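Standup notes, structure subgroup. Blocker cleared on the adenosine-5'-diphosphate input:
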Amino acid sequence: MPVLPIQSSATTEECLHLGRLIVLTGPSGVGKGTLMRSLLQGHPELYYSVSVTTRSPRPGEIDGKNYYFISRSKFEQLLAEAEFLEWAEFAGNYYGTPREAVLNQINSGKLVVLEIELEGARQIRASFPSALSVFILPPSFDELEKRIRDRGQDSEEAIARRLLRAQEEIQAADEFDIQIVNDDLETALNDIETVLFK
Ligand code: ADP
Ligand code: 5GP
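Run returned:
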């Protein structure tokens, strides 16, 4: 998908001189959401991009906070209108990053974090070569499966799809600028903070 500047004559690359874009990727269940929550609590100055998805909300998820939950037809309409900075289909659902909100935040000098899967991360790498990409790895595949199961929010079919995709994603970890293993949560959080702030 082409990336076009919005609301100014600046290119997206020029925008990045004002702010910074961080891409956080890793297999489902590795702990990205958990790490993001802690990161945002400790660093309210960060801008977390709330994605759009066609997935149904999990118990406790709030529209506009965790995701913007929309229908497939609405997603396809937004896609046709080039409203996404990147997008992908993951485990049977569409996910996308709202273009305008993210570019505005970068333009105003914010440190912007996208928590997205592999295909989207590749699109961002192509359109924002200066973005910093971080891949979160599980300590082992067994532990990853355990975390997905213990989370207790996905059907057997969804778990199987996520584990299959996880294998592909983990194989691509080397494409990312930095790899962090989320074994001990505090250690992984410190590692991310070091990458972002030190
Ligand atoms: P993701 O957003 O990557 O899909 P979640 O943040 O939902 O993953 O985490 C999946 C499960 O793993 C959750 O139940 C979470 O509490 C647990 N978890 C996250 N990090 C760790 C960790 N370092 N050690 C043990 N469990 C973890
Ligand atoms: P979940 O359904 O577990 O919340 O998310 C599934 C996967 O979609 C995760 O790997 C998550 O990082 C990814 N994801 C969430 N939002 C986006 C997005 O806007 N774009 C892309 N490409 N992936 C996303």
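Discussed briefly. Residues 12-197 form a domain with the Rossmann fold fold (CATH 3.40.50.300).
Next: hand off to the docking folks.
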